[in-house]
Amino acid sequence: MQESILVGVVDTPASRRAVEWAAHRANERLSRVELLSVVGGAIGTVGEGAVVAEAISLTHTLLEREAERVRAHGVKADTVVSRGDPVEELISASMVFDLLVIGSDFRGDHAGARSIHHGIRVAAGAHCPVVVVPDIDLAGRRGVIVGVDGSAVSGKLIDFGAAEAARTGDPLTVVNTWVTVPLPLNMSAYPADYLSGMQKVTEEALTDSLAGIPRLYPGLEVHRVVERGYAATVINRLARDARLTVIGSHGRGAIARFLLGSTSQEVLSSPSTVTVLVR
Question: Domain UspA, which positions (predicted)?
């Protein structure tokens, strides 16, 4: 079945990389692409009409320029300019697409928290998997990293990551981490059997999660990583050399859907590679 891809477009380097990423994927999978840009809602201020009209005109020009880049890959591309809140418009539009692609709005470690809010809010609220593309040159990178935690969504993450790795010929690395309970004040160190037990239990859980992959993808190169530490730290470290990272959202229900787990939020706050959020 043909895949449908929605790309949220703004005039930034990361957004241009997102368009290019979507175009390559669409060419490989015979997907259809729609480029969407949102002009902020009006509030009725005197003289606002001319400003909004000019913004809409410039946005149409931007979209047509980006659409031509997509079409250069032999992919059909439609363009839409909408009005309103960009986050709400992208979330609403995602209901009828298989994949939403956006550029990361992370602008460096010292840019402040405001620079990451929109992308995280879109990823948390969207109705389909969201691909967040940073302004990073991925030339020469290989590998798909999947972060799991044994929850119900972990199976979906592995399925998505394995399918991507098999399609592109990349190795698949599945990561699970563990952390200790706080050390009681009257203890100077953790018992060795406690630490080894945590490692063993986590390794066994990961093995169980991957049980069906060799049968589904017999030629796929699969690596397992089980470490003590925080998941986001380990995932981001491995992702520095990878082509793609796959993480999950635990959101459920009308309100919970807009909340990401701490790991996903931290990874998306400063992505080391193209990152897919699967719910």
Answer: 3-134, 143-275
Residue whose pair of structure tokens reads 């119900």 in the numeric block: 152
Which amino acid, 200? K
Q: 105: closest CA among 97, 115, 90? A: 115
Same domain, 31 and 159: no
SS3 call for 153: coil
Structure-token pair, residue 244: 């793609």
Are 211 and 248 within one domain?
yes
- The 10s digit of each residue's pLDDT in 157-176 is 999 999 999 999 999 999 99
Last residue of a domain, one of 135, 170, 198: 135
Distance CA 263, CA 23 (A): 29
Characterize the bridge pairing of strands 99-103 and 4-8.
Answer: parallel
